[in-house]
Amino acid sequence: GTTLKAAAERSGRYFGAAMGGDRLSDSGFLAIANREFDMMTAVNEMKPDATEPNQGQFDFRAGDAIYNWAVQHGMRVRGHTLAWHAQQPRFWGSLSGSSLRTAMINHINGVMAHYRGKLAAWDVVNEAFAENGSRRSSNLQSTGNDWIEVAFRTARAADPGVKLCYNDYNIENWTYAKTQGVYNMIRDFKARGVPIDCVGLQTHFTGGSSLPGNFEQTLSSFAALGVDVALTEADVTNASTSQYQGLTRACMNVPRCIGITTWGIRDSDSWRGNENPLLFDRNSSPKAAYSSVLNALNAA
Ligand code: G3I
Fold it and tell me: Is 36 a catalytic site residue?
């Protein structure tokens, strides 16, 4: 394949990007998106604060604008995200206990009803673990340790056809405590029949020139639990070619690694913009890392 999506599709995978609503009027961004990518994630527009700004009042305009552009250009869409400690509706801040739990359930039902049957996957729960491998403390965690499984059961009932993912960062290194914490939760969910289909590894790599040597082991270990894995927000300090090649190869080596998404397209799109972590430069030209990813996709 001569594009990222064509190369990924050779093995039945996708190659995705994230876009903010402001990029819908950025012709440079849209041209690359249309040429290279076949999966799209909204950067902020499908998060809880965006989709339910006031209790029971849903607003899908910004999310739909991205969804519609993507679908009109032949892409699929990943939903990001339904339950998270950050970017919550302001009214969640004045709730706790059973009223916050009910608000979370109502939010999942309201948003998933709108997108029912339309999305490839939902990041149902985002970033619920601390670095030490225990649950991150948050208002949602304070509603009871079962909040995550309640979110997934609610999601399955709301849209039985969409893949339900748990998504987190710093879970790429197999021996890291947080990776093990998430792994143990997924194993427990599968053992008890809690509905979950996929784990999203955000894959925000920082520092050094090599990625965790056991990254592929992490992917295959999650996959062995009976879930798909996906790299959902990839970006790499200075777009290290070896790290990009390594993360792509790791995904290609694991049959249940279904696709890779970069968090933006050009360095100017990135939340880590001063680290130039993406595959295209500020002039929309592909960087060396682009070739290393493309070659790794085509080698598989
Ligand atoms: O829209 C307002 C704008 O009106 C205002 O002038 C400006 C001033 O700061 O802020 C704008 O909102 C910002 C928003 O991005 C849109 O640019 C928020 O302050 C800023 O906090 C928000 O950051 C987002 C961040 O999530 C918040 O948690 C980033 O764009 C987004 O890329 C980032 O994405 C997360 C994933 O969801 C989860 N994993 C990590 C990843 C990177 O942090």
Answer: no
